[in-house]
Amino acid sequence: MEKDRLSGLEKRWSLYDVGNSAFMMLTATIIPIYFNALAQGAGLSEVEYLAYWGYAASVATMLVAIIGPVLGAAADMGSRKKRLFTICILIGAGSCAFLWAPVSWLVFLVLFIISRAGYNASLIFYDSMLVDITTAERMDRVSSHGFAWGYIGSCIPFVISLVFVLMYDAIGISMQTAMTAVFLLNAIWWGLSAVPLLRSYRQRDSGIQDDRVRGCFRRLWETLKEIRGQRHIVLYLAAFFFFIDGVYTIIEMATAYGSSLGLDTQGLLLALLVTQIVAFPCALVISVLSGRFGTAGLLKASILAYTGIALFAVQLDKQWEFWFLAVFVGMFQGGIQALARSYFAKIVPAEKSGEYFGIYDICGKGASFLGTTLTGFVAQATGNPSLGVAAIAVLFVIGYIMFGRAVRAQET
């Protein structure tokens, strides 16, 4: 039993998932609703609101997708993971703390983009730390625990935030004061969650010491050439690009999509709280099952489940259907993200984990850019938000096929 327990460092690593998941929960729920209020106040239509929200999410992810590999290379040269990780958290959480300030929807989106970019960039270093804080045999378990505790832990600031948002009148404060409290609470929660890890983390594997910017680009170029010769990694990154597209798009656009269909705002928020609660035990179960059935088999099952989720969402127009979808997403959301992260960590060189996860981030964030942009564009072009969802199922199918080829290449 002792070997099944997380070590102190593994627990401190998992704690950061608790903090950053709170920001993601905020991004998936309260932030788009608050933005909707700003957009309506400025006279924007529901279709324009959904489109601009999708574009903002896309810009935030693409910023990091472009610079991610360079950041990863810099982290591996001179053991800079902790330093760069800290800077990204300060940018992300600091911007989150001031999201209450803008009265213009456009300024709000700009500040959100900065905060989201800081969050995305921090994950490059956080994910790559997995190779430093545990062994290959424990990666599925530790990665799954991170997501599991992130889901349940994020419920604490989210429930407090709901009290402010839904009961501000009864509390005797204004809506603006309530939102100020919400953004400050989540920013502090996010920042403090990283402190234990920052105090104890030591980068175990690092590459050549080179402080020059040119050295980072040279090392990145060498890594890209190296990856070209590793067919299983190329195929996996291609598969990841497609299947994680749907996952991120569903996370990004769930509340905005439901709001654009006219579903009850309070019901949407509570349904997504249920998603977090369901995801907690399911992610832990998957961490146990991975030891019995293997990472690849469970990852394939999760991709197929998400294909069904995307197909069901196309015809969604009732509140109970959104609740049903929320529960089903919760069953597989933590599993597919945790297994995707740990599977990649197992197949890359530990001393170049920062660079490889920077490239991994390109595929993940590039996919998110594609999905959110596609949803926003189709919604704006057709006036029908549901049509943009249909393409997500196709991307899951492509991802499933590519992942199967990656597994076969890894076995040969």
Distance between the termini: 34 Å
CATH class: Mainly Alpha
| Main sheet: strands, sense, barrel | none
Radius of gyration, whole Å: 20 Å
Tell me, rounded to a whole number, the average pLDDT: 80
Q: Topology, please?
A:
Elements lengths: L7 H21 L1 H12 L4 H31 L4 H17 L7 H24 L1 H4 L5 H33 L3 H19 L1 H6 L12 H16 L2 H30 L4 H29 L1 H20 L4 H29 L5 H30 L4 H25 L1
Please describe the structure with a list of short key phrases separated by commas or semicolons:
412 residues, Growth Hormone, Chain: A, 16 helices
What can you tell me about this protein's structure?
This protein has 412 residues and is mainly α. It is built from 16 helices and no strands. The two termini are 34 Å apart. The mean pLDDT is 80. It has helices at residues 8-28, 30-41, 46-76, 81-97, 105-128, 130-133, 139-171, 175-193, 195-200, 213-228, 231-260, 265-293, 295-314, 319-347, 353-382, 387-411. It has a single domain (8-201, 220-411), classed as MFS general substrate transporter like domains (Growth Hormone, Chain: A), CATH 1.20.1250.
